[in-house]
Amino acid sequence: MAANRLAPPWLDEPVDANALVDHLWSSNTVRSSSGVITVAGVPVTDLAHEFGTPLFVVDEADVRARAVRIRTAFSREFARIGGAAKVYYAAKAALNSEIARWVTDAGLGVDVCSGGELGLALAAGVDPGRLALHGNNKSLREIERAVSAGVGEVVIDSVSEIDRVADAAARHHRVQSVRLRVNNGVHAHTHDHLATAHEDQKFGIVLEDVEAAVALIRSHAALNFLGLHCHIGSQIFGSEGFRESAKRLLAVHARLLVNGPVPELNLGGGFGISYTVADDPSAIEILAEQIASTVASECARLNIVVPVVAFEPGRAIVGPSTLTLYEVGTVKDVLVSIPGLLRGGDGAVETGLGRQENSAVRRYVSVDGGMSDNARPALYDADYSVRIASRSSGARATLVRLAGKHCESGDIVVNADYLPSDVTPGDLVAVPATGAYCGSLASNYNYLGRPPVVAVKEGVARVIVRGETEADLFARDEGLVREENGRKS
């Protein structure tokens, strides 16, 4: 049978629809001899039985190892050029008390961008000195809380924030270290909604205004200027954008040195991961070597000392560590017309719907979650992969679209991948690389509770974030609370 013409050009029909492509899954995820996918030695069938579905399953050792690997790569490469590196975990990717402890155990700081993230990190016992507070619209309360807690640094995002942070620091008799976020015109090759260094966007200030802003920071005795900060986007596969960003920032950095110290430079995060077989991000060791070499050559050209260079990876640490486990509900075939498809031969599709010309069949496999636990496909047209998880099958591969259960036509989890053609209601399927932003962006749309998060390590699974129940959701509805209280009284 000819390949399904609805498949995207990058997606080939697999020889074995059961096979797990290694770089899409956490390091401790395999398919066992029984055909069941296991994570760190625990079968997903056991996880679904104990914790239900949908379920976020985190490979704890994988998270820890990736954090160490990234810190080691940057530390080694910047030591090679006579400098040093700092690595902060970008908490917006995924945050709970366990993840905060895992990354700090690995020697990373934590980058937070709201009062809630700050509060969670503090509650988890993270040393405030290892925290950095971001945000384009920090409230006075958030600034006050950060300064009073003793955070290591605040990233100034606009000129108006300078006085606000200085005032808070003076009230608490502190000298608050700050960075200044800038837009340097480097545009990451990514989705428009992910590229964050454009001049026409809400983050930071343009390069032309940097020197005046730094002079204002230096005018406050309560502020200590660390250096510049820039974030060029997300899901970036190569080093070119980071290297160009470093060149532009170092040119300004050199001018700022004339009037005072500039000990650090923060190049942000955005390192990409593989979501599909088509994704091919550079290894973090290669990125670190190339970025460090560029920083070294630019500093030599400018005749300046190599600063401490900071990075803020999030997705690259937690993204590949997690899979989302779903149970299949309905399976249906939909006949789709394809303009320009040749008649006869490859243009005729033989299905249970009959022989159709100029058409192809898309199999919709619907699951018990969707955009409430993974909003990225709806937000960014993000692609994901899927594999049957509770068994293996000898059935031929068939193109599927994994759909959610929400009342939205755009509620698609996996736009296109291949599963065995005998996929059926009750099967478990697993979507890899859901550790970044899926839990963070989760919602209660259609009054679904957000899924639990389970960490698995060395054959043991434990809940690290409890799933929400209907009672949790109803507890916020004051009308129901009053009625319940009235019945009890």
Brief summary of the model shown:
The chain has 489 residues and is of the alpha/beta class. It has helices spanning 44-51, 60-80, 97-105, 115-123, 140-149, 159-171, 210-218, 240-256, 284-302, 315-318, 376-380, 470-474, 478-488; strands at 29-31, 37-39, 42-43, 55-59, 84-90, 109-112, 131-133, 153-156, 176-183, 205-206, 223-229, 264-266, 308-311, 322-337, 348-351, 354-357, 359-367, 387-388, 397-403, 412-420, 428-432, 453-457, 460-465.
Describe this structure as you would to a colleague.
This protein has 489 residues and is an alpha/beta fold. It folds into two domains: 22-59 and 320-474, Beta Barrel (Lyase, Ornithine Decarboxylase, Chain A, domain 1), CATH 2.40.37.10; 60-319, Alpha-Beta Barrel (TIM Barrel). 29% of the residues lie in helices and 25% in strands. The protein has 13 helices and 23 strands. Strands 4, 14, 17, 18, 19, 20, 21, 22 and 23 form a nine-stranded mixed β-sheet that branches. Strand 11 (223-229), helix 8 and strand 12 form a beta-alpha-beta unit. Helix 5 (140-149) packs across helix 6 (159-171) and helix 8 runs parallel beside helix 9. The longest helix is centred in the N-terminal third of the chain and has 21 residues, at 60-80. The radius of gyration is 25 Å and the shape is globular. Residues 191-195 and 341-351 have low confidence and may be disordered.
